[in-house]
Amino acid sequence: LLGLLLVTSRGWIPDWASMVLANTLTVSGSVLGYMGLLRFFGEKRRQAFNLGLVVLFPMVHAYYAYVQPSLRMRTLNLSLALFLVCLQCAWFLWRHPTRELRTPTRWLGVLFGVCGLVSLARMWHTVLGFPQGSDFFHSGNFDALVLISYQIFFIFLTHTLALMVNRRLLGEISAQEEKFSKAFHTAPYAMAITRLKDGFVLDVNEGFTEISGYRRDELIGKNTRDLFLWENPMDREKLVDLLQSKDRVRGVDHRFRRKDGSRLDGNVSAALISFGGETYALSSIADITARKKAEG
Questions:
Q1: Environment class of residue 85 by beta-carbon count within 10 Å: exposed (0-12), middle (13-18) or buried (19+)?
Q2: What is the pLDDT of residues 173-198, one digit of tens each?
Q3: How far is CA 125 from CA 100, 133, 151, 197, in A?
Q4: For labelling, which of 43, 92, 105, 292 has a CA lying 20 to 30 Å from the CA of 272?
Q5: Residues in Cβ contact with 81 at an 8 Å cutoff, skipping those fewer than 6 apart
Q6: Does residue 248 contact residue 230 with C-beta atoms inside 8 Å?
Q7: What are the C-alpha distances in Å from 201 to residues 150, 194, 211, 227, 229?
Q8: Angle at CA 266, nearest 5°, toward 265 and 271?
């Protein structure tokens, strides 16, 4: 972006900034983009070639800007550099897509391939003897079309990169949800997720239905107060106060009531979690009724 701004500022800023620095920033940004793709996919590769490209490019560009001015050679230098970077990006994306990101990486590879072809066409056009003169902004319709193509490419590139990143984020969220769901529902002790402010039951596991006597559909969407799960409703208020002050509570004894009205002694541990902007309590309850009876 900065390189593009410098190019369009030609005439208002020094020539070295609009010609050499601007195009060096463009090539450097492309190399950084390639390195970003590698990092996104967890690949580690030596960048000696690309670092050499970033160092050599401004030297060649400066030579054909001041020592032997030639718009044709500067155009060839830039097109070749962009072609080499786009080729690396396209090759990597087509050879190393992950399964969950296969579609967006394929499209991203196509985009880089198209950009490489545009650069290749520009090199071919340059070898044939164009552009003529020394003023880039009066170099002809072909170069204007190439610039438009590059801008369209950057628009699609931004959109496709956003889709790829979002796909990964959604995949990571889905994997975390699956892990949490399995741990929650296969836990050997009773677990429940209730809204902190009113006791609304969001979810319970099989262990909770076993010790409470309620079916899962009888609990979800209901309020713990309406279900009379707490023998003393004030115990819940005390637990909520503890959670709000400490974020988690471990090994607190409370008394509950099962569906049939019998008493249940439970050892409660709980922690605060958030869903959709609401605060919930993730609670586990160990049935210690037998132990309490044995203690007398």
A1: buried
A2: 888 888 888 888 888 889 999 999 88
A3: 40, 14, 19, 70
A4: 292
A5: 27, 30, 53, 57
A6: no
A7: 54, 4, 16, 10, 11
A8: 160
